[in-house]
């Protein structure tokens, strides 16, 4: 065999071995407990690929009072990645109690894909936790604050007030809203948020919401690398009743926040226009 042909075959064999051993991007996992055992396929949106466990699951870290902490590993490293049962959907569309206008908008967003997140806008609600780059959770006990940092995209963070305050009587609408939190027992952080704007998608597939949106989230860390996430969505102007969705957050212990360049004026106009039609904002471009 000629040397050039041997070289080509060797390269092909190496690439095949890497792709087989390390799929990355999208991983199928079993449904159920933190050990990944069971059969319903789920999708891990982690772009680098999930780090497999070595040995039995480790318990969740706790502070001196016995309460769980939500940062990563005991040395403070790690980013939380979403593992979803329904691909990028929060729930199957048939299980979401849409108001008629909201269903039409949801379906149109599925066609246009004009998501503000793709243009470096902050992602409120559950969408913040569905990015393939994950979030970092930092608790400052002395300041009575918890921060959720977006690793990718707009370089923003969400503040959760843990000092016992209530929501103000009037909250200027923002992407992240106004969040207050408290601990439920030793294992679960509860976050109550109001004051959202309408400038983001509520999940990756385009769930709409209005300024009447109210969310209750629960973070229950049951293992070192597993936190159960639950959100109850209540927006009577968008949905006929409140509804709840759940998924897991899995820890990538070897990853720390890294630079993500969100270029100014990168409008990608060929992706932002649906030919021959107006988008939901009534214009050809989204500001």
Quick recap:
With 287 residues, the protein is α+β, with helices and mostly antiparallel strands. The protein has 3 helices and 11 strands.
Task: Give an overview of the whole structure.
The protein has 287 residues and is α+β, with helices and mostly antiparallel strands. The protein has one domain. Helices cover 13% and strands 25% of the residues. The protein contains 3 helices and 11 strands. It has an 11-stranded mixed β-sheet with strand order 1-2-3-11-10-9-8-7-6-5-4, with no helix packed on it.
Residue stretches low in confidence (pLDDT < 50, at least 5 long) are: 1-51, 279-287
pLDDT averaged residue by residue: 78
Radius of gyration: 21 Å
How many distinct domains?
1
Number of strands: 11
Major sheet, described briefly?
Answer: 11 strands, mixed
Taking strands numbered 1, 2, ... along the chain, how are they ordered across the largest sheet? 1-2-3-11-10-9-8-7-6-5-4
Alpha-carbon distance between the termini? 59 Å
The topology string of helices and strands comes to HEEEHEEEEEEEEH
Overall geometry: globular
Q: Which structural category fits the helices and strands?
A: alpha+beta
In percent terms, what proportion of residues is strand?
Answer: 25-35%
In helices, the fraction of residues equals 10-25%
Number of helices: 3
What structural keywords apply?
disordered C terminus; 287 residues; eleven-stranded mixed sheet; 13% helix
